[in-house]
Amino acid sequence: MKHKIETERENLFDVNMVIAMRVRITGDPDIVKLEEAFRKAVSKFEILNSKVVIEENGDAYYIDCACPASSFNSTGMGFEELIYENERIRFRIEEGEYIRGFLTPDGIVFLMHHLGGDGRSMLFFIEEFMSSLEGSESNPIPFDNLPVSSLPKESRMPFLYKLFADSWNRKWSKMRKVFSFDDIEKSFEDFWQSHRTKTEITEYGKEELDEMLSECKKAGCSLTSYLIATWLKDDPKKADVGMAVDGRLSKRRTMGNFATGIHIRYRFDKSRSISENAVRINRLMKKRLNDPVIRYSVLQLIGNLDPTLIDTLCLEACGAYHSSEISRFADFMSYGKKKRDLSITNLMRADIRTDYGLYKISDITFVPPVVSYGVNLIGIITVNDKMIVTRHVYG
Fold it and tell me: Which positions ≥6 away from 252 have C-beta within 8 Å?
């Protein structure tokens, strides 16, 4: 196989692309059974049996990999310590390393590079892993992604966006450079010598969750809008809030990076209640979500920019490359000094089964990566009437 990396290109050179999930299960499988289930699950997904190559002209592709380097091990480290340690160890995507699995004292932890898939993709992997642990068999799952040519016709990039992309492509053509995995390695090592992240985890039980859902139903807003309102109530400025959106165009339960996004700007109105503010936030969100041009604008723009320009955007953001022109471009794209105040991914109620015979999923914790355009990365997931919210930041 050979599939070009287009709309997911910004994940290639970003120095923090680790998606983390902790799965707590009932039952007590030993490490041998877990390793076997992991190996079988990896073998089912075509994308996890690929590797990434960068060609001389700067184009990047997924191609077949005979011996993918994803692995499963046992460790005494806790969830947050594992995230901290593994963020500093680069995923060898050029060797087919997309997922690291760990048996820990507090559950099974999966860490995945974003080019292996998005948050929903990881849920599909967990479902396949648990099915393999149960002893079920399944068919191979083919590669899938979102090339620009597959995006809905009604999401065509607006004229001004096209002018923007063409203008920056022309500017970049005069200083164009192709970057390699050596550049990724150096930028990664330099960045993590002076940075670290921390993770805050908050769990909401059934009673608290039902209370919030009841309030949302009464007000006529989504739970995501309500949570955003609670987070903005003490912020005096107009906040830039980004929300990850599932861009899948089919119902196939495949792995791949299908994440697109929208963003709104909102200042909390202290003369109104949290619920009233949530309704206004919900209205802004729905307007953007229902507009296919806005919904897919990020993917259209990324797919129409020179891929090496996207690479240099990420390198500029982490301090590995600098020019005054690219610095301006980074500011335009929220990769510079001004970033999103909140970047939220709500995986909603997990779209996988939780009962696997001897083994049952109790809960799942989801931690998104601190991507270059974000400051506060929020992950939300609900399993078995328990909602777990994480906040992932540098600090």
Answer: 144
> Are 347 and 119 a contacting pair, CB within 8 Å?
yes
φ and ψ of 50, to 5 deg: -125, 175
d(CA 233, CA 66): 52
Q: What is the pTM of this model?
A: 0.96
Sheet holding 107-113, edge to edge: 71-74, 99-104, 107-113, 18-26, 359-367, 355-356
Are the C-beta atoms of residues 256 and 278 closer than 8 Å to each other?
Answer: no
Nearest Cα neighbor of 21 from 128, 134, 119, 91 is: 119
Q: How many CB atoms lie within 10 A of CB 150?
A: 15
- Give the up-direction half-sphere exposure of residue 33: CA atoms within 13 A in the CB hemisphere: 13
Instruction: Give the strand pairing for 340-349 and 355-356.
Output: unpaired
| CA–CA dist 132, 78 (Å, integer) | 25
Across the beta sheet with 197-204, the strand order is: 197-204, 386-394, 374-383, 340-349, 239-246, 259-266
User: How far is residue 124's CA from residue 257's CA, in Å, rounded to a whole number?
Assistant: 13
Query: What pLDDT, in 10s, does the model give residues 202-232?
Result: 999 999 999 999 999 999 999 999 999 999 9
Residue 98 half-sphere exposure toward CB, CA atoms < 13 A: 31
> Are the C-beta atoms of residues 152 and 297 closer than 8 Å to each other?
no
